[in-house]
Amino acid sequence: MTEAAVPAPPPLPSSSAPAEFLGHPRGLSFLFATEMWERFSYYGMRALLVLYLVEYLLQPETAGQVIGLAAFKHILEAALGPLGVQPFASNIYGLYTGLVYLTPIFGGLLADRVLGHRRTVIIGALLMALGHFMMAFEPLLLFALLFLILGNGAFKPNMSSQVGQLYAPDDPRRDRAYSIFYVGINIGAFLAPLVCGTLGERVAWHYGFGAAGVGMLIALAIYLAGSSHLPPDPLPINQAREDRKPLDRDEWRAIIALIVLFIPTSLFWAAYEQQGNTIALWANNNTDRTINLLFATAEIPTTWFQAFNPFMIFAFTPLVVTLWKRQAERGREPSTVIKMALGCAGCGLAYLIMAGAAFWAGGAKASWLWLFAFFVVITTAELYLSPIGLSLVSKVAPVRYLSMMMGVWLATSFIGNFLAGYLGSFWTGMAKPDFFLMIAGVALAAGAVIFAFDRPLRAALRHGV
Q1: What is the pLDDT of residue 234?
Q2: Which of residues 215, 235, 255 is at a domain's end?
Q3: Which residues are registered as beta bridge partners of 19?
Q4: Are 133 and 156 in contact (CB under 8 A)?
Q5: Which of 8, 23, 348, 399 could form a Cys-Cys staple with 443, CB 3.0–4.6 A?
């Protein structure tokens, strides 16, 4: 459930702020809580979206209520061919989650050049809250998704940039601050399916979307309450001195090497992002979700499986970091590029587990323990690729183009999510073992490409990565 944090412009020297939150400036506590509730709203809505579309809104008796849906479907079918309910839902999911990772590039530019970070965050939060509440009204589906996409683009890059601005450039607490901030992201992502998902799945869809909207309003209230503790906006870029020195040969080599890595990374995200799409459908329709308690049995709600990944991030991050530390002490820690290749391979292995589940179950329902094993493996794979990729970009990209290159990194998630929606459209027409084997093949191919380029990439990146 990793989120990419866009690097800030050079931070203001404000480390003299009182250390009132885990040894950090108090502003970090407000940014932490704001991001936690924003991620609660985002992942709460995401946990419901595909199920809502397939089980209810895109059914013939309700689809006609949605303003502009017929025209939108016509445009998609002109490019992709006829779309049934599930393939159409899959492509809507892919476009939505993909554009969520594209618009932050423009939100960052808007803040840097015109509005400043604070005003852009407030506008983004209002747009997202409105979008979540609009989801409760069937005719407004497409307008709701548009508001959510635009709001996320304004909010996402400018929240994470303010974390860095709390610290002077040489403040050693800065890296730890981002780790604390990242915990907030995953707390929100963990709670969202349990609250929004349960309300939407077990009570009514609209209650789930409404809960997401309430979460976004709480995020905005916390942000406004902490405004006096947040850093001032940096000077807009159109008023600051810009470095127009041409890129040298080494800088060009680093940029080209990163772009080479971004291509297979997009394939990783295409496989990984099936979690909120076809994996949600598998959990709903093909999984025996019965769990035996001491004196009774209960059924795990479908949306609760979306909480497995963020919970496992809490549990596995210390283990993975400790493993790398021990490997480093023995001189055996994999290079950054090899770690990314292993992450892709682990993603492929996770879908091989699902292929085994589908094959073993035949026409019956598979045990929920297969999904548990899937999330164990794919979470470990995520830890080997997503934060490592962010670290790589921050280390090797030319400093004056760091934000641009991180924007390109976010664009890999855009491409990956779009591909995830397209690949997910084959779910209905393929045998389930074959579908999971196809997704596994995509991830394994990405890993093979990265592994094959390890030596030339390490030379181009120049940092022994």
Answers
A1: 64
A2: 235
A3: 25
A4: no
A5: 348
Strand partners, 137: none
Q: Do 320 and 383 meet the contact criterion of CB atoms below 8 Å apart?
A: yes
Domain match, 261 and 214 both: no
Query: What pTM was computed for the model?
Result: 0.76
Q: How many C-beta neighbours within 10 Å does residue 11 have?
A: 21
Tokens of 201: 């799945």
Which has the closest alpha carbon to 453: 264, 244, 237, 327?
Answer: 264
Q: What angle do CA 331, 446, 355 make, to 5 degrees?
A: 105
Measured distance CA(146)–CA(151) in Å, rounded: 8
* pLDDT, position 7: 46
The DSSP secondary-structure symbol of 239 reads: T
Q: Report the CATH number that the domain containing residue 429 is assigned in CATH.
A: 1.20.1250.20
Q: Would 241 be classed as within a structural domain?
A: no
My answer on whether 253 and 314 are in the same domain is: yes
pLDDT along the chain (465 residues), means of 10: 47 48 80 91 91 93 93 94 92 90 82 82 95 94 96 84 73 65 82 92 92 95 91 62 66 81 90 91 92 82 88 85 84 86 96 96 92 95 82 68 67 86 91 96 95 76 55
Q: How far is CA 378 from the centre of its chain?
A: 14
Number of domains in the chain: 2
The CA distance from 116 to 316, in Å, is: 37
> Which residue has 């991180």 as its token pair?
406
Per DSSP, the three-state class of 446 is: helix
Side-chain-side CA neighbours of 8 within 13 Å: the count stands at 25
What domain range includes position 115? Answer: 1-235
> How far lies 195's CA from each of 41, 81, 100, 315, 372, in Å?
10, 37, 22, 21, 20
State the Cα–Cα distance between residues 258 and 363, nearest whole angstrom: 44
Answer with the one of 235, 262, 280 that is the final residue of a domain: 235
To which residue do tokens 């592994």 refer? 451
CA proximity to 104, closest of 402, 404, 403, 407: 407
Q: Are residues 369 and 429 in the same domain?
A: yes
Q: What is the CB-side half-sphere exposure of residue 360 using CA atoms within 13 A?
A: 12
Quick one: tokens of 49?
């979206």
Same domain, 225 and 261: no
Measured distance CA(347)–CA(273) in Å, rounded: 11
Question: Under a CB-based contact definition with an 8 Å cutoff, are residues 80 and 424 in contact?
Answer: no
Which tokens hold the place of 89? 């839902």
Give the pLDDT confidence score for residue 125 in this predicted structure.
Answer: 95
- Return phi, psi of residue 224, to 5°: -65, -40
